[in-house]
Every structure is written in C-alpha cells, then in structure tokens.
Amino acid sequence: MVRLNATFMILLCIGVMGFAVVMAIHGGRDDDASALLKERMAQLMVKLDDEDPQECDRAEREIVDIGKVAIPHLRAAAASTNVDIARRARSILRQLGESTDSTQTEP
User: Tell me: the pLDDT tens digits for 63-91?
Assistant: First the structure.
C-alpha cells in the first residue's frame, strides 16, 4: 500500500511538473505567438508571388495548413495590388470556406 502511494505521488509530481513546463513554454506567450504568426504570414504572402511555381504552391499549402487564423492576413493580401498574390489569397480563402468579397482587410 505504501509502495503504491509512493508510486502514485511520483507520477502525480511528474504530471504537475510537465504541466508547469508546458505552461512556462506556451502560457502567457500569446503576443509572441501572434508576432510569429504575423511574421510567418508576411513571408508566405511574398512567396505566393515567387518565380518558382512550386514555391508558390508550397506557400499556399502551408497557409491552408495554418488554417482559419490566417484569414485576416489573407483578406489583406486579397486586396493587394499584386495580381498574383491577390488571386492566390482569394483562392486560399475559398479553400478555407470563406467568402472573397469581404471588405475586412486588417490582419
């Protein structure tokens, strides 16, 4: 019985420490994550107009994988004066199930 309780306490401590590590890494870092997302989206938007069509396709797939959090960035890109970036951004919005006629452009 004592051995079982000691094992349980050790496992409980490991679980609590693991949770603390996860919270230290991810908790309270929404601003950092948002800044990283904004930076990555800016990079991907530029790649949508790359000379290499495969690079454009890779960027498009990555944006689709990022998902709905990319929508504000895509809306801004859809209003771009760069025809290729705007076209691809609208295509990705459609793939994500979004309308492409929205006037919202703030990322």
Answer: 999 999 999 999 999 999 999 999 999 99
